[in-house]
Amino acid sequence: MSMMPGWEQQAYSTMGQELDGRADPAEVNYREAEDPEMACAECLNFLPPDQCGVVAGKVNPAGVCDAFTPAEESESPMEDMNE
Question: In angstroms, how far is CA 82 from the centroid of its own chain?
């Protein structure tokens, strides 16, 4: 898989941070999404601009993890960001 430009700078570590009951990114296989329709920005747990209800720390809207849950058929948070 080729890494998108800037991915390394946008993938965050939780080292030294309080997890607040959320999973460490490594525990849920947090990674760059291969399919944009299955990215954090399209997940029910995504909290714009860079938080998740499941994964601790900041997340990249173009990332994904094993806890991905498709959001309802509502407007994508990414569409809001582009307006």
Answer: 17
